[in-house]
């Protein structure tokens, strides 16, 4: 068997199998992420089965949001090192979810003010007072990054339809929930109990006026509360307890906590 017998795929064939462009494969070669095992006398790339398997792994990690510059280290690392890298990647993704939710909430509140029946818009001073000095950044980033998502569109629709009374009612529910969570924690209400289910449902009621919320989404939001210190202001030292209540309820309803999807 010659060395070329081991190299089974041209760059065009490899690109078709991996469903990427030949330009992408050349880029991966340039940055030494996926270097073909062989080249012809005419300097054409030839990819082996091992090369193709590495290409598949690259696509998997890229799909998980890992940067190209980190994928080579991830693929070549030991099992324990890969686990540490992936745990860090998971934290980064949770941070992104947290930031996205914060931006959407800010924009939803802004849209509410813009669509009140009086037809008046909020002044710059009002916006800064409501969102803080970073509100222009939130507004623009949310529009650019998530303006074409279904959740964003649904948020806009739901909030635009809210009256002043609806907004006041939603704020009151949020206030009642915060006290309910504090009381439940202080009385050591057990996760999975009937009382705990009432707390979990009350939390859902604080979010549902602004966005469609399933139990799976509720689990991911609760995990975000724990991962992001910015939510300490809203939930204080009760974030981990709230997560335990929500996960117990989700598990009781048949949700696999090791594989929760935003759906």
**How many β strands by DSSP?**
3
User: Low-confidence segments, ≥5 residues, pLDDT <50?
Assistant: 1-5, 117-123, 126-132
Structural class: mainly alpha
Largest sheet geometry:
3 strands, antiparallel
The helical percent reads 55-70%
Strand content: under 5%
Whole-number tally of structural domains? 3
Query: Mind telling me the C-alpha Rg?
Result: 25 Å
Instruction: Count every helix, treating DSSP H or I runs of 4 or more residues as helices.
Output: 13
Coarse morphology: elongated
Distance between the termini: 51 Å
Oligomerization state = single chain
Whole-number average pLDDT?
Answer: 77
Strand order across the largest sheet:
1-3-2
Strand-and-helix sequence, N→C?
EHHEEHHHHHHHHHHH
Walk me through the structure:
Residues 8-77 form the HTH merR-type domain. This is MerR family transcriptional regulator. Keywords: Activator, DNA-binding, Transcription, Transcription regulation. GO terms for molecular function: DNA binding; DNA-binding transcription factor activity. It comes from Corynebacterium stationis. The chain has 263 residues and is mainly α. It has three domains: 3-76, Multidrug-efflux Transporter Regulator, Chain: A, Domain 2, CATH 1.10.1660.10; 92-162, no CATH class; 163-263. Helix content is 67%, strand content 4%. The protein is built from 13 helices and three strands. The chain has a three-stranded antiparallel sheet. Strand 2 (38-39) and strand 3 (45-48) form a beta hairpin. Helix 5 (79-114) packs across helix 11. The longest helix has 36 residues, at 79-114. The protein is elongated and about 75 Å long. The N and C termini lie far apart (51 Å).
């Amino acid at each position: 068997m010659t060395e070329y017998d081991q190299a089974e795929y041209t760059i065009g064939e490899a690109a078709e199998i991996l469903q990427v462009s030949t330009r992408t494969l050349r880029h991966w070669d340039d940055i030494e992420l996926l270097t073909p095992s062989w080249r012809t006398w005419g300097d054409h790339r030839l990819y082996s089965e091992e090369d193709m398997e590495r290409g598949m792994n690259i696509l998997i990690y890229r799909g998980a949001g890992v940067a190209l510059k980190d994928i080579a280290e991830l693929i070549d690392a030991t099992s324990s090192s890969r686990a540490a890298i992936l745990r860090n990647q998971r934290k980064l993704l949770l941070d992104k979810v947290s930031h996205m939710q914060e931006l959407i909430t800010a924009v939803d509140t802004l849209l509410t003010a813009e669509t009140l029946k009086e037809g008046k818009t909020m002044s710059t001073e009002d916006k800064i007072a409501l969102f803080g000095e970073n509100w222009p950044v939130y507004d623009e980033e949310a529009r650019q990054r998530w303006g074409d998502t279904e959740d964003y569109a649904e948020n806009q629709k739901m909030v635009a339809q809210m009256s002043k009374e609806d907004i006041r009612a939603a704020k009151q529910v949020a206030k009642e929930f915060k006290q309910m969570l504090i009381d439940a924690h202080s009385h050591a209400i057990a996760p999975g109990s009937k009382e705990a289910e009432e707390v979990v449902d009350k939390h859902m009621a604080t979010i549902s006026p602004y966005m469609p919320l399933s139990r799976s989404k509720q689990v991911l939001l609760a995990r975000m509360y724990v991962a992001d210190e910015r939510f300490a202001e809203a939930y204080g030292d009760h974030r981990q307890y709230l997560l335990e209540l929500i996960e117990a309820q989700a598990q009781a309803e048949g949700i696999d906590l090791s594989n929760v999807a935003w759906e």
